[in-house]
Structure prediction request, 212 residues.
Amino acid sequence: MASPAEWPHQFEAGAAGAPLLLLLHGTGGTEHDLLPLVDRLAPGAGYLAPRGPVQENGMNRWFRRFAEGVFDVDDVVRRAAELTEFIAWARARYDLTDRPLIAVGLSNGANIGLATALLHPGTLPTLVAFSGMYPLEGRTIDADLSGSSVALFNGKDDPMAPFESVTRVGSILQSRGAEVELTVREGGHGLHPTEVTSAAAWIASSTRKVQQ
Prediction:
């Protein structure tokens, strides 16, 4: 990876007192993909939207994979550490040291968000994962995730994020002390409008808890 300062990204501070969203796009996306969701998820929110650093057949991704649904777990671990480093750099660069950050990831972006939350407690204590799954097959997670909150939104017939993997990541998060809310809808992979509405309510609730 290039140094954090060279990592392509978009930043907007947003309104005073509004949440700051870390936007993690899906495979083939860019740092611009999830920007249209910001006002729907949290009106007035700021955002930090980096670009996935891995290339797969010309598509941006957050980590390598060997096949559909078969991740290079060593690379997942490495890229989660890089994202953690980028977030620390961005906090200093944009004077965000004391500002809560809510991660919002879609598909591959949800997976790197989940990996980062599991491996680097405190980096992403609040996470919305759309169509994510367990990204750390074969790894033991022993981190203390007390104080973390994760909202999982998944289709029950998603061949790209099998439901068994979804329930597994939820169970592992809970076993390490995180609060987990799993919302299941009909259908498969992707982002459904009802999920955006539900995620917005969850983010609003999470923001109120942080401010209390």
